[in-house]
């Protein structure tokens, strides 16, 4: 064992979702964790150092929770790429003992990789409590690797399991799978092994051969065989498929489950009790035909109410108004004055950086509360039920049941809303959700609504609800339009989701998840914001006068107002082609609260109340009710603030998709505002103009996109019918 | 033979065949719905879709569109 103390060992932790993998990982590594993303994808990558007195230099890599090593989902591809190319020294396969049969399915696949492996059967306490029993020794004989009983929650057996894995890794004991498929299949697989020959002479030999038999696209691509070899392999597979009357992929899946059934028979004894578990009882109420929706509404109301309007808002108001509004600026201001800082630098730090970054950091407490609730709902198993209840509605417009949560949170703040989309496994649904989430008016957009409603509509009651209605309509229409485009078509993904048993949430997991999500917001959104506030500050405070670049007295002379004047004509068809409105919209990209503040400054008021009451009179002289409504709609629907754009960028993990989302939102906002303004003009008797024609064209295009047949759907139905 | 999506709540059926191909079929089978598996139809979501079934001792939610690919008896 001396070698084990010197050699650096990497252990991969693999297992099904809901098998207690996160709990085990946290228990094994404690606080020594590094969270990042897998290269190229937004799936979380976690690594940590093993807490052990015996071994010093052991890294545990937490693979995404997966059910299989198929080539079809991102998580599975990430996991298998790491297992095959990342050369982990050993695998700990965590298996949920209370759901042994399906969990062992992944085990049979992992075993074929040939990497030293330990199977850790989790939730042994639950198994015993149920009166069931698992014969670990027998299971170990059948699988051909050590099998150890653990409870990740109670932290029993986990160190032993990890140390066993390190032992195997240092001794380099390869995993030799004991299971054999039926003779016909084995014959085909060894024929493939012969054909491939030296090409697969490594420890993943068996795995590769089985994958080639399954005609796995990814493995075939990498092998890059010439046509002759491919033909020979195809004929081997075709022979076997004919004999077994099924496709090769299904043959393997079937045989794996048959094999599992055969080993379970000997090693797993189930006490036949048909009595309902507590989880069943909870579920009977929570997803009850009549009670499900009211309960759901109540839960969501509580989450929203507590985190956005009460606790979260109190703390956020305090951080915004007191901490970043008074305490920090005053302290920093005094300090800067005392050391004799130049006025411009002081202004940059106070008006630019602190007020800009502070506005974003002010949301942190609210997000902490929200994320705590989210983690709680996820951890106890309710989130899966939300998706179950809501799926029907959301599928209608190309989203999934899980899209509801991001939108709900988005009504508080778009940043955590977008980040909550992480729980959506399906790539397409997730991208779509991210793209449409910020259509819902967030808290920072409320002042815009209040300003317009107060100044131009005499505080009419219907303005605010109409803004929410516009947001919801935008989501629905976008969903329908986008799901028909090529970008969001592609392989139809099935919505097959495990509904894990309810259990008491684990405080450690909830707090950790809350902190990780918040921290990534603070760190990354903070850096983007910092940069932007500096840029905006320079743009608004510097200008060219007398042929020189200098700091301007009046914001009207700054670059920002020049830029505003330059782009203002763009908004003329929307009814507000003057530079103040254009600049307000621009600064709204930094933070939507800025829209009202900027308008206040531009109309000559140093500071205005949140709803801009002081400038109502002035405003109604430059806006008409129609152009004001169009202005409001545009600002609500167009690209969100920098912080949200940063979140979109992070969650999409792709420049292309980020640009698409922002471009789409802005275009959509433009089209909506154009139509509202132009048709409004027509209806108020201003005659038919080129603008009206353009709006008509937009409506025609919109209707076409909305109503055209869905190619993907027809394909699906056809393939199902052909199957009969 | 019947289709899983038409089976009323409370009935237990056995899988005979899964039609379709590629990712959808593989995903369904990966979750343990293979030939000869017993499926207990537990409930249908409040809005009529998806449905919840018990398979291999755990609860699975499956859309009716996907359940339409599973032939049972």
Q: Which segments of chain A are poorly predicted (pLDDT under 50) over 5 or more consecutive residues?
A: 1-5, 713-724
Quaternary organisation of the protein chains: heterodimer
> Which H/E pattern describes the elements of chain B?
EEHEEEHE
Structural class by SSE content of chain A: alpha/beta
Our estimate of the beta-strand percent of chain A is 5-15%
| Total number of strands of chain A | 12
Looking at the overall shape, the CATH architecture of chain B is Roll
- Output the radius of gyration of chain A: 30 Å
Largest sheet of chain A: 7 strands, mixed
What is the CA–CA distance across the termini of chain A? 60 Å
Return the CATH class of one domain in chain A.
Answer: Alpha Beta
Biggest interface goes to: A-B, 47 and 38 residues
Strand order, largest beta sheet of chain B: 1-6-2-3-4-5
Notes on the protein architecture:
The complex is a heterodimer of chains A (724) and B (73). Chain A is an alpha/beta fold and 724 residues long. Among the domains of chain A are: 2-171, P-loop containing nucleotide triphosphate hydrolases (Rossmann fold, 3-Layer(aba) Sandwich); 183-269, Helix Hairpins (Orthogonal Bundle). Chain A is built from 33 helices and twelve strands. Chain A is elongated, with a radius of gyration of 30 Å. Chain B starts with a strand and ends with a strand. Chain B has a single domain, classed as Ferrous iron transport protein A (FeoA) (SH3 type barrels, Roll), CATH 2.30.30. Chain B has a six-stranded antiparallel sheet with strand order 1-6-2-3-4-5. With 73 residues, chain B is of the alpha+beta class. Helix content of chain B is 18%, strand content 40%. The A-B interface holds A 67-68, 70, 72-73, 99-102, 105, 247, 249-250, 253-254, 257, 283, 287-290, 292-293, 384, 387-389, 391-393, 395, 491-501, 716, 719-720, 723-724 and B 18-32, 34-35, 37, 43, 45-50, 52, 56-63, 65-66, 68-69. Strand 10 of chain A pairs antiparallel with strand 5 of chain B, so a sheet runs across the interface.
